[in-house]
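2024-03-11 09:14:02 DEBUG pipeline.ingest accepted 1 chain
2024-03-11 09:14:02 DEBUG pipeline.ingest length=365
2024-03-11 09:14:03 DEBUG pipeline.predict start
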Amino acid sequence: MTLIILIFSIFYIAIILLFTIGVIFIKAPNSSKKHFISIIVAARNEEKYLENLLKILTTQNYENYEVIIANDRSTDSTQLIIENFHKRNPNRLKFVTILEESKDFIGKKNALNEAIKKSSGEILAFTDADCVPSRNWLNEINRMYEKDVDIVAGYSPLISQKNCKFLNLIKNLERSSVFAVTAGSFFWKWGITCTARNFSYRKSLFEKCNGFQSIAHIRSGDDDLMLQKISGKSHKMKFMFSQDSIVPSYDKDDIKSQISLETRRGSKWKYYTPAIKILSLLIMLYYLSLTLAAFFAIFNKEYLVLFLYSFLAKTLSEFLLIFIFLYRIKRLNQMYVFPFAELLYIPYFIFFGIKGTFGKYKWKN
């Protein structure tokens, strides 16, 4: 067991260091071309947030763009909100209405696909209806797209709807670790994960990869599964660190929704590319071996030493990656909760990894 943990530790730290190098050295281009950008949003029962989003999207500090909203089978006032904005901004805002779920395109992907069909932009920029991008968001996306850049992603923190700063910091630190992996892997031209809240790619790349075909039958994954599909046929990939590129999103306001969200995230493992599936599995096995070492340490001092050294090495490598990422994104205040998050993350990862793979979750159908 000692040898197994040692091998896993070396492998894990090497991967984290590769991501850290990526975060340090990934550079931001500064394209002078004003691309035509199509903002794509799928909205399902989003009357609570949609009006504010449309106010922001229709008043971007950028001229060469359009907004396309897909009303995905909403039963609230989403359609009315869209129509009212369309009347005031007929040249800027387009919309499509989805009445029934497609047999070929399950869930959100059908709405996105229909919106993309109506788009005219060479760049497709995606966000969600419960997000709050800045009015300079498109400027930041545009300057990333030099001629050899095909995919761009950005940071998206959670806005707490409850007065619990500590919990919000814990959640955002966990999400920041994922974004650090996104930024670090982009440097190596390896699309592992991203979020639909702040994601864009060239329409030509979408068409070259046959759009959502091959993942259309999966209810989720319009972001990370799509990234994994298109990154292999892309040129450069860039991550945005500027403050104007950040797209905050409202956090889930109840525990059941949060559990469903985390389970849904874990459920996509079975659909990942072989390389990412193997990477995730090895990390899971590493975390399980550390957990066993911690248990055996109760009865054997040798396992205690092994666990402490392995956990310390893991902690220091993760600290370096997350610290550098948060420094670049100007969110270093999240590091206050790093010790607590470090203790919680292994059981969290194992629990939702297993629950997502073998359990069920309830989500928007």
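2024-03-11 09:14:41 DEBUG pipeline.report The mean pLDDT is 91.
2024-03-11 09:14:41 DEBUG pipeline.predict end
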